[in-house]
Amino acid sequence: MKLIHNLDKKYSTLLECAIKARSKAKADYSKYRVGAALLDSFGNIHLGCNVESADYTLTTHAEMLAVDNFILNGNGNIEVILIALEGENKPATPCGLCRQKLNEFASKDLKIICVNLNNKEKINFIYEFTLEELLPYSFDSSFLNSK
Description:
This protein is an alpha+beta fold. It has a single domain, classed as Cytidine Deaminase, domain 2 (3-Layer(aba) Sandwich), CATH 3.40.140.10. Helix content is about 25%, strand content about 25%. It is built from four helices and six strands; from the N terminus they run βαββαβαββα. A six-stranded mixed beta sheet has the order 1-6-5-4-2-3.
């Protein structure tokens, strides 16, 4: 994990998109709105926001929706995903389900940028991880190819 003091300019559009996606989140129960912006190797941006259901098992996570939109509309590789949410002192990283979904469609060196915003949507902290750091010893398709 790296704590970053300034977001690289090349990711400013991703941050704007993630904040815009976050504004569309349906988080009536948890009030925990999350937006994600995924950049593919062709320069396309795929968005996601969390959509909650009274039956929490039906809830869609922002990162999952961004990956689904990448699959639906994209090609190439996932280069980076930026996640924007309201947070204080510690990084709010993708949950285990989202990490596994990213693992299915991205490389282990995928850059994951977590931007913690204050309640006025100004940046509190920026954290950067790789997928490998967040999901070491991951389960992948190689486990399914045994004889």
